[in-house]
């Protein structure tokens, strides 16, 4: 009798990952790093007063995309043009992210987030141009920064959710704890908004010659910002305790929110030190970097409240 060959493949096993999917993680990480990096370079533009180093848009100066030797803006033109160039790199990474996520990530939410990141980068380029054409009005500067925070959150979500499959993750904490975490994120958003009001009322608007201002008392809005930061820190502590008490054997939620607390405390220290030392440029940039890292930590904190399907929470 002929021998019938049998396959050892388990028909119920998930399909092997596509060989190209090994590119997914590096692309998502590069996208996140670039989103954080452009906030830092934007801070450099602001503290050096280089926001109008390229006085027009989309050209740097009338008749030239790149800075020219004849420009009167000095070194400011190179700083502003460098930030614009990074925007182009960010656009290419966002496009690569869309391609990679749509090919290799199974979750629909990730696909939507990748498109939002690409659209946001394009929108940021337009908003940046409007900011220049409007002479760095503090409202457009604030909007520019806040959109960047949204893009950092979306890029962080893509990075931390990269291992999830198409099945909805399993919650690790009660719904009230999740709501508390989201409320904490909402207050964090208010902290960021008030931070832009403080900046728009202080000395680092982005233009070295004619700084634009909201016309508000910088001391008053700074203390209002600090008060909301205190509320935010209290909510972070409450979320950490709630996650620790309700997640059972899963330690991931409490660990993630402990990281949020650590980043928030460090950011608060930098904020107070820069206020009492008359806003030195290095601390202003550090504070902007801290804001992006806080958004990354909060995004991770929200995602840590659920278990990836098939994954073991530790």
Question: Any overview of this molecule?
Answer:
By secondary structure, the protein is mostly helical. It is 65% helix and 1% strand. It contains 8 helices and 2 strands, in the order ααααβααααβ. Helix 1 packs antiparallel against helix 8 (281-303) and helix 4 (138-160) crosses helix 8. It is flat. Mean pLDDT is 84; it is low at 1-17 and 310-314. Pathway: Porphyrin-containing compound metabolism. Keywords: Cell membrane, Disulfide bond, Heme biosynthesis, Iron, Membrane, Metal-binding, Oxidoreductase, Transmembrane, Transmembrane helix.
Order of helices and strands: HHHHEHHHHE
Q: How many beta-strand elements?
A: 2
- Rounded to the nearest angstrom, the distance between the terminal CA atoms is 53 Å
**Which range best describes the helical content: under 10%, 10-25%, 25-40%, 40-55%, 55-70% or over 70%?**
55-70%
Kindly report the spatial arrangement of strands forming the biggest sheet: 1-2
Number of domains: 1
Q: Estimate the global geometry from the Cα principal axes.
A: flat
Largest sheet, strands/sense/barrel:
2 strands, antiparallel
Number of helices: 8
Beta fraction: under 5%
User: What is the gyration radius calculated from CA atoms?
Assistant: 23 Å
Low-confidence stretches: 1-17, 310-314
Quick check: average pLDDT? 84
Secondary structural class: mainly alpha
Transmembrane segments: 85-105, 112-135, 141-160, 180-202, 222-243, 255-276, 282-305
Organism: Fodinibacter luteus
Membrane topology: Multi-pass membrane protein
Main location: membrane
